[in-house]
Design a protein that fits this description.
The protein has 3 helices and no strands. 0% of the residues are buried.
Length: 106
Amino acid sequence: MIGRLNLLLILAVLVSGIYMVRSAYESRRLFTEVDRAQAEGRRLEADYQKLLADRQAQATNLRVEQVARERLKMRPISPAITFNPDAPAIEASGVRGRVPAQGAAR
């Protein structure tokens, strides 16, 4: 009877020890996984901040003007290249130097 009780207690201690070792191993594994995830989060946040800075640099007025000039072949407006569809009507009416107000009756 005492031999069986001792055997049962030894078995309980062994099972308990195995459970403790497994629990400690799982805890270390999860801690490592959390640490990796946090490092990845920090890396992604740094990439995001860099992309925001790049976007802000690309959206400056000088940059937009440069792209418009170089890629789109745009140029500043001047009276020599401006087309006014109302110009013949203004000249025919004899009114020079004055542009009729929008919405005014003709």
